[in-house]
Every structure is written in structure tokens, then in C-alpha cells.
Fold:
Amino acid sequence: ADGAAAQQQLLGAAGGRSAGGVMATAFSLSNLPLEGDGVVENLFHYLWCKDELDEGPCINIPDTIIYKFRSPAYWYFTSKSGQIKRKSRYNLANIRIEEAFTRKVVGSDVVAYYLSTNAETGVTTIEYFDRASFRDFLYNREKVDNGILQKFVEPRGTHNVMIRGVWSPKILLLERRENLRSLSDTKYSLYERAVTYDGAEHFSRAAPVRGSILPISVQEVCKSVVTHVSEVSFRKCNISRMALNFKVDGEDRIWLLWCTSLRLERTVAVRSPAGSPSHGLVPLRQKLSSKQGPVSLFPHCQVPESVQKAFRSVKPGRGGAP
Structure:
């Protein structure tokens, strides 16, 4: 009963846009913390909210379903207009999720993946699904931790590639990582064929980021995220650093997948010394470092216990040991 009550409270806090407009949004965001490591799931809600001009950022995100209290709670997606929208609760039925996630699947047999972080240990796990395991996850499996279910975006090329952007106001560090196995090579498990930054290092390799178009495009997405979060939170949430994962599809579109680490700017009021020209005026604002320290660059995820860890052995001299 307590869990149901908590779920209703959370759903109410992050509910739809009411007649109250922007103030209703401000109230809902105050109950959704942003700082953290692993999977910063609340960032999707901030991106969905509209600012005072009823506008939002134009960012591509895959179909993303947030699980709360072992059940699907919110479904975010990018509409044809480029805006991030949220489906009604009517669409959160398993049959509708299965239809949407398995429709128009081309290329590999990977359909989706589920990311979750254990609240007690802080350990993040990831599990990839094909059609059969996805159906089992939806209808039969018990969801232990809160997490996100995200539709798999087919990469450009035959190997899965992920791009990680570590953003701060002064610099953007861009990295690219490519899985060693072909996505179509079914001799290997889904995990071995799909993981990049989210898996053990010996399953993937670092790859160069060529040209200037991709860095500029990722920088624009990062700026859009930072600006929008600040606007919809009425400058209460100012991002100072974050680590985001991206993917480029076969049509050269950039997709924001999820945020692995995020820090907010903290400020305190500092009064000017006595005798200074500004003494007695409005206090100055001094920026402080986040209490949670720097962003985490170690997003290695574990395989959940429910997944059979029967990976094929890698012989010495062919990429190391598993």
C-alpha cells in the first residue's frame, strides 16, 4: 500500500501539463532531482517540459519508458516535429509497448535494452533484448529496480558504436567506441555484440572522431539541454557538467540515448567587505563545486543475475580474456 501511495504521489508530481501552466511544471520539477550517476532518468522529464514560451528543444531520443515501482510510468519520444513528447498512460500497456518497439525493426536482432541502478548498491546493470527475450521481459519478468527501457537505434555500419560527450561550460570532450563484433554475428550473445561504454573494455575498442560536423552537432545538443533545463526550472537547476551518450544512425541523425552523470552548479550569497564600493548592495553570487564531486567517467554496467553469463570464451591473442 505504501508503494502504491508513493507511486501516486510521484505520478502526481510529474503529471501532465495542467491549466496552471508553467507554475505546475515548476512544482513537478522540484520533486525530480537531477544530480547523480548511473542513469539520470529525470533528465527526460526536464526535456519534455515546455518553457514560458511553450517551446522545447529539438532533440532526437529513442522511445524511452521510465519504470517506477516495477511498472512503466512515463513514455517519452521524439515526434515528427522534432519535439520531445510523452505518451498518455493508456499507451503504457505491455501490448502497446511490444508493438511500438518491435515495429519496423531492420538490421540486427537487437530490439531494446533495459538500464537500471540499484538504490542500495549504486550498481548499474544493462540487459539487451531480442524479440523473444523482450516479450519475456514485458510479460513474465519481475522488475526489481527502477530503470529505463529504451528502443535500440540501429547504428551506421555493421558494428554498434556509441559516442560519449563530456560537457562543461568551457570544453566538450568527445569519445567514440565501437564494438568488436558485428551486430549480425549471432555466434556471440546480444551483450557481446552490442556493448560499448556500457560493457567490459575487451568487447569494444576506441575509435577516432573524424571531421568537425559531429563535434559541432553534439555541442549544439548539449547547449540545448543545458539551456532548456535552466529555463524550465527557473534557473534553479543550472548544469555545470554532464556526460551524455549518443548514437548516429544510418541516416546520419544524432540520437541522445541517456545521461550517465550530471552535476549542478551551486551558488551562495557572499557579501562584499566593509568599505568596498559594493558594500551594502545586493550580495554577490559565488559558484561552488558540486557536493557529489566531478562527473563519473566509469559507466561500466554489469549483467543482471537473470541473464545467463555464458559468454563465448575469447582465446588469448584475439582480444584478451572475457
In short: The first strand starts at residue 36 and ends at 37. The chain has a mean pLDDT of 82.
